[in-house]
Amino acid sequence: MNASFQRVLFFPITKIIVGIVVPFSLFVVIQNFALKPLFYSIIQDKRIANPIIHCISFIVLLAAYYGLFRLYDKRKITELSLHHLHKEMFGGLFIGIFSISLSIFTLYLLGYYQAMSITTAHYPIEFFTVLVFAAIVEDLFHRGLIVRICENWLGTHVTLVIAMLVELQLHIYNPNTNFVSLILYLIWGFTGAMMFIYTKRIWLPFFFHLGWNFSQPFYGSNLSGVNDMGSIIQSRFNGPELLTGGVFGIENSIITLSLLLSIGIAFYYLAKREGKIVKRKLFKR
What we know:
It is built from ten helices and two strands, in the order ααααβααααβαα. The protein has helices at about 5-10, 10-40, 45-70, 85-110, 125-155, 155-170, 180-200, 205-220, 240-245, 255-275, and strands spanning about 115-120, 235.
């Protein structure tokens, strides 16, 4: 292979572009030209068909990423290792659910949150599978790909800045975004990146992400500015927007932001204590 071509092919930015385009293109083709035609033809109710399609798409995306980098890098795909899956699954779900629950409980004690009723009628399974798929897309390509490659290339601290800016770019056009939301995106980028940097696997940030996103509509809150993600607890938020999050949702509360930042700082401390902070010079002589 030509040396110049090889340098371009294995340049970090090239790897990021290829790592996003190839698996995602394969997923789009399979979903739209195989999965949807098949399942829509045998299952008339899309509320039943779509969750199945989402679950299979989840597997397709992971398999495409795994296969690509097995060929591309000729290495073990450690970021998808299942070695500590049970710990990272339960740990991530617990931290995500507990964080939102603690924010809701704080609002309840302050008199700013009231639960009206509980029913699953407003929360079809399709909503949950959408959350699962959305979380794996972001955590696979953002944490597993961009953060992983940038950390090996530029070091942890520069990568954290990049992760925060990527998160901001990904979500800046969410409905009802305001100044507090911009801070949320930056903090989320930092915390999600630190979870990956600490474990070197996508599972802890993925399950944290899933628990975090599931809990908000569970308690009747909007999710990232979206108000049609269903709910299990029908509730009422009544208080200062800085505390309740307003129409954006509970994650826009300064209570939740403080908890999210604390989690990120805790993982940074753990990573630093265990020697997992990578130091790289931007320019080598």
